[in-house]
Amino acid sequence: MKKTKIDHYTDKEALDFHSHKKPGKIEISSSKNMTTKRDLALAYSPGVAAPVRAISNNPDAAFDYTSKGNLVAVISNGSAILGMGNLGALASKPVMEGKAVLFKRFADIDSIDLEIDSAEPNEIINSIKNFAPSFGGINLEDIAAPDCFIIEEKLREILDIPVFHDDQHGTAIITTAALINALDISKKKIDKIKIVVNGAGASAMACTNLFKKNGVPQKNITMIDRKGVIFRGRENLNQWKSSHAIETKNRTLNDAIQGADVFLGLSAKGTLTKDMVKKMNKNPIIFACANPDPEITPEEVEEVRNDAIIATGRSDYPNQVNNLIGFPYIFRGALDVRSKTINEEMKVAAAHAIATLAREDVPDEVVAAMGGERPHYGKNYIIPSTFDPRLISVIPVAVAKAAMDTGVARKKIEDFDVYKDQLKQRLDPTVTIMQGVHNHIKKKQKKVVFADGEDENTLKAAIAFKNSGFGIPIIIAKEEIIKKKLKEIGYSENFNIKIINSKNKVLREKYVKFLFNKLQRKEGLLERDCDKMIRNDRVIWASCMVECGDADAMVTGNTRRYSSSLKKISKVVDPRPGEIMFGLNMVVNKGKTVFIADTTVHEYPSSKQLAEIAKSSARVVRLFGFDPKIAFLSHSTFGTPLTSRTKHIRDAVEILKEMKVDFKFDGDMQPDVALNEEYKELYPFSDIVGKANVLIMPGQHSAAISYKIMKTLGGAKVIGPLLIGLGRAIEIAPLRSSTSDILNLASVAAYSSGVINYGKIN
Question: Are 95 and 142 in contact (CB under 8 A)?
């Protein structure tokens, strides 16, 4: 079984991430404009009285007039934090904030984390009961057994909103989906198989219950805890364990595993041995889900069996049992029908939806998200990828239907095709783009030069690039300065990144010769002039490394103006043949992505240049998995008002029409017409259906001003500017770029070096 490289991060990196700018990972923002006195009057007094009265008369109106219907409380007492144990309520807060981020990132669900400082189940129950009316759902997390059973069972009885302990049911749903497909592949019947469950905690119990719900007879499941097999007549069993006790003479895992079809491990490293695997039935199914280290590794299984289907809880092996595949989308479906609970039928529906999705042909956007690999249903692909964008349009539908069919839904969905489209719109494509980029570059391991290695943020980005397994960083710097800088920022000197500078005589002579041959006639330079440039300018040196094949890609900037860096790079590297050079920014704001061009190169592009920029932009955004819809922006809309600049834009549109391109475009138009579908009703003749995702600006000034305002005031995430049309994979970071910004540009540069043929236009 092929093992992929797993990401590694230092404690310093993790702490810096959590403390940067605003401490923590979540914040609250207003969903309505709060700019005028009237806005405030509607939001609070006296306008707020109207929804208050409406809710008083009909409690369900809270779903219509408050955030309740899209709000989940993520709750823990910190008694079982990940694999670290009982560290207390406050220590669990980073994990719960992380859970809230995942809800938003994958299902567009708002979450608030609440840490309850109590070890008493009744106290926790009462606390949740009292604040539950504020929420549309309750997600319990990292609560130790058996308290988690008591708390969840009681809350499900007394509350009329979904209560879901993800450690139990999320694991159970994903594992059941994996089991359904593994049985299909191995040609085994669910009512005939023999299952051994090693572990008797919350997740093991939930998995076992859902297996039974899907057709596995109770007598065919043997559960094992630290004391051995749970059998009828064993003393001191609690009510939850006793419900899984069976008549059997087996007393140990070694006994029970004989002839077993399925092993489910939710226990500890090394508990399943190779000798035990040998005893299992033909085509065994092994789910070794202990984290971080499984009960047995796939490599160990393959040493003794070649007919096994293997899953683990780890991302560096195929078939990862990851709750992220389930819980955001299960809650999404439950919230959208205002469900009173998440019942067994909804869990079963979710499991079958996940299983079915894995059997379908994988579309191109999933391939992109998975780094260029196209998985096929089989032994090494029984569960969809966590980054499969189809999850949000599949699982919520199944869950919502099950809720409606079982009578726990307060609201009906009338048209599920419309609902699927609405779900797709909740997930911004960008969330999978960078993951796809990272997956791709991890496999290629390109050499990327960080030209400004002595800059703190650049140095941190190079370290993160290496630690994340993205490729091989090379920093241009003086070694003694780097050692001092590493000490200042709290990193170990032994970070094992190649440092290079002009002291390297062999490379220096090589680059001087190359540069002299290139520039002697072009700029009238002498060889000593080229030698001086090579010795004194890191951007020139790094550009030569890429142009001469000693590195695959490069990132610079951050310490100087963009135009200065571009001027130096252009001395060494020519534009890509037949293509215009320009800057393209990817801007992500409120779950939507737009690309803006030209942000860096042409102050006032001609109509011909605007058409070429649009054509190249379409090619680039397709590399990132977007279907380009291009709007030529102006102060006018379709000729009103008609000015010389309006005509300039309209001419660009006409030129692009003559090129007979295969993407949608239109203009001239104002930004609100391009980005707001409501305006499309006024212009039904427009060739752009829906919102534009590529904005061609009339000039560099308007482009740069727009994205920087969005970034500074609107809180948008900006990737770029990406330098398009240069003859090598080189990116320039703007002044004062963060570590994350530089890392993103380095990743894009590494990606570009692998997917773009720099000899000709794709």
Answer: yes
Q: What is the mean pLDDT of the chain?
A: 88
The pLDDT-based confidence of 125 (bands split at 50, 70, 90) is: very high
Architecture per CATH, 324-427: 3-Layer(aba) Sandwich (3.40)
Average confidence (pLDDT) over 615-628: 86
Give 762's pLDDT tier (boundaries 50, 70, 90): very low
CATH class of 55-161: alpha beta
CATH code for 169-321?
Answer: 3.40.50.720
Supply the DSSP string of 158-189, one letter for each residue: H-SS-EEEHHHHHHHHHHHHHHHHHHHHHT--
CA 262 to chain CA centroid, nearest Å: 31
The values of phi and psi at residue 490, to 5°, are: 85, 20
- Which region among 29-33, 76-80, 105-109 has the lowest average model confidence (pLDDT)? 29-33
d(CA 447, CA 444): 9
The phi, psi pair for 472, rounded to 5°, reads -110, 105
Note whether 284 and 141 are within 8 A (CB).
Answer: no
SS3 annotation, 218-281: HHHEEEEECCEECECCCCCCCHHHHCCCECCCCCCHHHHCCCCCEEEECCCCCCCCHHHHHHCC
Provide the sign of the torsion angle of the four alpha carbons 279, 284, 290, 295, taken in this order: positive
Is the whole model's pTM more than 0.85, yes or no? no
685 exposed, middle or buried (CB, 10 Å; 0-12, 13-18, 19+)?
Answer: exposed
Answer for the pair 283, 262: CB distance below 8 angstroms, yes or no.
Answer: no
Reported as a single tens digit per residue, the pLDDT across 256-266 is 999 999 999 99
All CATH 3.40.50.720 domain ranges in the chain, comma separated:
169-321, 324-427
Name which residue leads in pLDDT, 80 or 363.
80
For 243-258, the pLDDT digits (tens) are 999 999 999 999 999 9
> What DSSP string runs through 309-328?
EEEES-TTSSSB--GGGTHH
Report the pLDDT value the prediction gives residue 366, as an integer from 0 to 100.
63
Q: How confident is the model at residue 13 (pLDDT cuts 50, 70, 90)?
A: confident
444 close to 373: Cβ distance less than 8 angstroms: no
* Residue scoring higher pLDDT (717 or 340): 340
Compute the C-alpha angle 534/540/546, nearest 5°: 110
Q: Where in the chain is the domain with CATH 3.40.50.10950?
A: 437-572
Enclosing H/E stretch for 723: strand 717-724
| pLDDT of 167 over the 60 cut | yes
For residue 554, give Cα distances in angstroms to 31, 205, 448, 550, 738: 40, 52, 5, 11, 17
Residues β-bridged to residue 593: 588
Catalytic residues: 44, 99
| Structural class in CATH, domain 437-572 | alpha beta
User: Which is nearest to 624 in space by CA: 461, 440, 454, 453?
Assistant: 440
The amino acid sitting at 333 is G
Where in the chain do CATH 3.40.50.10750 domains reside? Answer: 582-724
Query: What percent of the chain clears pLDDT 90, i.e. is strictly above it?
Result: 52
Tell me the fold of 582-724: Rossmann fold (3.40.50)
